[in-house]
TrEMBL record:
Name the UniProt record assigns to this protein: Dinucleotide-utilizing enzyme possibly involved in molybdopterin or thiamin biosynthesis
Region of interest (Disordered), ranges: 300-334
InterPro entries: ThiF_NAD_FAD-bd, Ubiquitin-activating_enz
Biased composition (Low complexity): 306-317
Pfam families: ThiF (PF00899)
GO molecular function: ubiquitin-like modifier activating enzyme activity
Keyword flag Transmembrane helix: yes
TM region positions: 24-41
Presence of the UniProt keyword Membrane in the record: yes
Organism listed in the record: Thermobacillus composti (strain DSM 18247 / JCM 13945 / KWC4)
Keyword tags: Membrane, Plasmid, Transmembrane, Transmembrane helix
Superkingdom as given in the UniProt entry: Bacteria
Length: 442
C-alpha cells in the first residue's frame, strides 16, 4: 500500500517548505463519458456523497452526444438523446447527490494544454495544510487520447493517472452473422470480456508507479485524433458487463483514496465473463521492503530494487509480463524451454540462471540481446490475446515468451515495439523457478 500523505511529511531536507500537509483534496478529471466513464461517474459521485469528510471535485470531459444506440449499454435514457453525455451525467448525478459536478463538452481533449486547463480551476480550493491531489481518469477507446494523457503524466510533477481499457467484441469483417464460420462465431462469443485498469502515480516529480504505457504500451504512431476519426476506424462494439466491471474497478481505486489516502493496486486484469480479477499490488512494484514513507523520503535518483529502473528522463519503467504477485503465483505466461521443446531451427537451449559466476549472468540476471517473432499462431488467453516471441539472451540461450494485450492488435503493437527496441531487458529466475523480467530503459 502506498500512503499518499507520506510524500508530504515535513523533514529537515524536504522540498516541502510550507506547513505540513495533513489532508488531501481530490480534484478528479474524467475523460470519456461512454460505457466505462458513464458507469464510473455513477459510482464515484455516490462515494463523493458517502465520504462526507473527504473533500473532492469531479469534472467530466466528453463532447459526444447521446445516441439511440448508446441506450443499450451506457447509463442514459431516451430523453437524453441529442444532449451532451458529459452535461447529462454532471447534471443528473450532481443533482441526485447535491454535488457540484463540472462538465466540459466543447471539444475532445487532444492536447496537454487542454488537460492543464481542466485542472486549473483550483483558486478557491486552496486551504492551509491541504494538498490538491490531481486524479486523471482515462475512460476512452482510442490510443491518441491515451497518448495525450500519458504526455500530461510526463509533464506534470504530481498526478494519479487511472486508465481503464476493455477488449472490443470481435466482428468478422465484411460478413453478416449468417456467413460467419464456426470458428469466427466462437471467437465472437468469447471476445469482449477482458480488460484492465492501470494506476500510475507521480509524486514530487518522481514516478512511483509507472503509467499505462509502461504496462501496456500505447500504439499512437498512426493514431487519429477523435475529432477526425469518425467513420475511419471500424466499429468494434463493447459488452455492457465489461464496461460495468471496468467502472467498478476504477471505483475500487477511488474508494481506497477516499477511505485511506492510499493506493493498493498498481494494475488489475479482469475477465467480465468469469468475474475473475488478477491484481498486481503497488507494494510489489515499489518493493516489498520499502514502505511509502521510505520511498517518499528517497533521493530523486534512487533506483527501486524491484525491477523498476530509472531512465535518463527520470521515469521508471516496469515490464509486468512476468511479474508475479501473491495472487498470480503459478499463472505466469512465460516458461523456460529446453532445446527439445523449441523448433530445431531456433536452436534453443535451456536457460539456467545461477546466482553468480557464469558468463552472461549479472547481478540483474541475463541480458536480452534481441527479440524475434515465432512462426506460431497467436493464443487466446484468460485476459485477451498473446503473441509468442523468442528472446535471445546474452549467454546464448533462448526464452519463449507470450506478449499479451486485451486486444490482438494491442499485443501485436507491443511485439513490434519490442522488436524495434528491446531496450535493456534482463531475465531472472526466482528461487521457486518463476521467470521475472526487468527493464532499464535509457
Amino acid at each position: 500500500m502506498i500512503k499518499l500523505l507520506d510524500f508530504h511529511k515535513k523533514t529537515a531536507d524536504s522540498f516541502q517548505r510550507q506547513s505540513e500537509i495533513s489532508k488531501l483534496y481530490y480534484y478528479i478529471v474524467l475523460i470519456g463519458a461512454g460505457g466505462n466513464g458513464g458507469y464510473a461517474v455513477q459510482r464515484i459521485t455516490k462515494m463523493m456523497n458517502a465520504f462526507e469528510n473527504v473533500r473532492s471535485f469531479l469534472l467530466i470531459a466528453d463532447p459526444d452526444t447521446v445516441e439511440e444506440k448508446n441506450l443499450h449499454r451506457q447509463p442514459f435514457i431516451a430523453t437524453d438523446i441529442g444532449q451532451k453525455k458529459a452535461d447529462v451525467l454532471a447534471k443528473r448525478y450532481g443533482g441526485t447527490y447535491g454535488l457540484k459536478i463540472g462538465s466540459y463538452s466543447d471539444s475532445y481533449i487532444e492536447s496537454v494544454d487542454q488537460l492543464e486547463m481542466l485542472f486549473s480551476h483550483t483558486d478557491y480550493r486552496h486551504e492551509r495544510g491541504q494538498f490538491i491531489q490531481k486524479v486523471l481518469i482515462g475512460a476512452v477507446d482510442n490510443d491518441f487520447s491515451r497518448k495525450v494523457m500519458h504526455d500530461y503524466f510526463n509533464k506534470t510533477d504530481d498526478l494519479i493517472y487511472i486508465d481503464a481499457g476493455i477488449e472490443g467484441v470481435y466482428l468478422p469483417p465484411d460478413k453478416s452473422p449468417e456467413e460467419w464460420t464456426d470458428e469466427e462465431a466462437a471467437e465472437h462469443r468469447e471476445s469482449g470480456y477482458s480488460g484492465q485498469v492501470v494506476v500510475g502515480l507521480k509524486k514530487c516529480g518522481r514516478v512511483i508507479l509507472p503509467p499505462l504505457d509502461a504496462v501496456y504500451p500505447i500504439n499512437a504512431k498512426d493514431a487519429i485524433p477523435p475529432s477526425h476519426s469518425c467513420g475511419v476506424e471500424p466499429y468494434q462494439p463493447q459488452r455492457m458487463i465489461s464496461n460495468e466491471m471496468a467502472a467498478m474497478l476504477i471505483s475500487t481505486v477511488v474508494n481506497e483514496l477516499f477511505s485511506s489516502n492510499a493506493i493498493l493496486v498498481h494494475y488489475v486484469n479482469f475477465n467480465a465473463k468469469t468475474g475473475n480479477c488478477r491484481p498486481v499490488y503497488a507494494e510489489d512494484v515499489v518493493g516489498a521492503n520499502n514502505d511509502s514513507a521510505s520511498v517518499a523520503a528517497a533521493p530523486y535518483d534512487q533506483e527501486a530494487d524491484s525491477g523498476l529502473q530509472s531512465s535518463e528522463s527520470g521515469q521508471l519503467q516496469h515490464d509486468p509480463d512476468n511479474a508475479v504477485s501473491p495472487s498470480t503465483k503459478g499463472e505466469e505466461d512465460a516458461k523456460i524451454l529446453s532445446a527439445e521443446e523449441l523448433p530445431a531451427e531456433q536452436g534453443g537451449v535451456e536457460v539456467e540462471v545461477p546466482e553468480s559466476g557464469v558468463a552472461g549472468v549479472r547481478e540483474k540476471g541475463i541480458k536480452v540481446i534481441r527479440i524475434e517473432t515465432l512462426d506460431e499462431k497467436h493464443e487466446k488467453t484468460q485476459h485477451g490475446y498473446g503473441v509468442p516471441v523468442l528472446y535471445h539472451l546474452e549467454d546464448g540461450s533462448t526464452l519463449r515468451k507470450l506478449i499479451t494485450g486485451t486486444r490482438l492488435k494491442d499485443a501485436k503493437a507491443r511485439v513490434e515495439k519490442l522488436i524495434r527496441d528491446p531496450g535493456n531487458r534482463w531475465i531472472e529466475r526466482t528461487e521457486n523457478g518463476l521467470v521475472i523480467e526487468k527493464t532499464s530503459i535509457g
